[in-house]
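Before relying on records like the one below, remember that each one covers exactly one chain. Contacts with other chains, cofactors or solvent are not represented anywhere in the record.
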Amino acid sequence: MSDSNATDFTNPSTFILLGIPGLEAAHVWISIPFCALYVIAVLGNFTILIIVKREPSLHGPMYYFLCMLAVTDLVLSTSTLPKTLSIFWFNSREISFSACLTQLYFIQCFSVIESGIFMAMALDRYVAICDPLRHSAILTNAVVAKIGLAVLLRGCMLILPYPFLARQWPYCRTNIVPHTYCEHIAVVKLACADIRASSYYSLSVAFFVIGLDVFFIVVSYTQILRVIFSLPTKDTRLKTFGTCSSHICVILAFYIPALFSFLTQRFVHNVPLHFHILFANVYLLVPPTLNPIIYGVRTKQIQDRVLRLFTHKGT
C-alpha cells in the first residue's frame, strides 16, 4: 500500500484506524475495561432475551420492547468493540472502505433505532399508567410488532443517505482516521471536497430524531407524573413511579452521553481528541452494559427469573 500520508491517491481501498491518538502506550490497559464492559453487555442482553423467551408471564409489551432494546444494544456494541479491541491487542488498524461505510451505517442506524425504542417504551408506560384498563387492548402483539417495524424502518431509511453521501466524496488527503471506529464525521472530514451536504443532513437527522423522540418522551412522562401525583396515598405513588424508574434510568444513560458527545464534537473545539474518542466509545458501550443491569436490578419479575434460572442450573 502506498504511503498513507501521500496526497496523490483518490478513494483509497482501505482506511487506517489510529485507535486513541496520544494514548497508544495505554491501549492495552484501556482494552481491559472495554473488554469487560463488552462481555457484560453481551451476557446481560442475551440473558434478558433468554428469560423473556422462556417465561410466558413476561410476554407483554414492556418486555417485547425490552427485547428489541437488547438486540439493538448487542448490534451497537458488536459494531465497534471487536474492531477496537483488535486495534488495541493486535495493532490491526486497516479496514476496507466498504467495511468502514458499513460500520458507519450500523452505528448511526441502530442509535436512531434505540432512540425510537425508548419512545415506544414511553408510550407503553403512558398507556399502562394513564389508561391501565385498556392497556392490553391498545398495545396488542400486532400493534407492538408494527411499532417495532416502524422504528426499524425509520432508522434504516433516515441513515441510508449517510454511506451514499460519504461514498461519493473524493478522499485524496489521507486515509488515516483518528478514531477507534469509522465515526461519521471523522470519516467525511478526510474528503477533499465540500462536505456540507453530509454535515447538514447529519445535523438535521440528529435534531429531528432527538428532538422528536425526547419531546414525545417528555410529554408522556408529564402526563404520567400528573396521574401519579393525583393518586391518593404515598405508597401507591411510589409503587406506580417504580414501574417507570428503570425506563427513566436507561433513557438518561443513553441521551446524556449521546448529547454530550455530539455537541462537543460539533461545537466545542478545545476538547482534547483522545477525550472525545474515549467518550464516543463510552457512549456506544456503557448504555448496552447498563440497560440489562438496570432492568435486572429494578424489575422484580426479571430479577426473580434470573435467580430462578441460575438456581435451577446450580441444582
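The mean pLDDT is 88.
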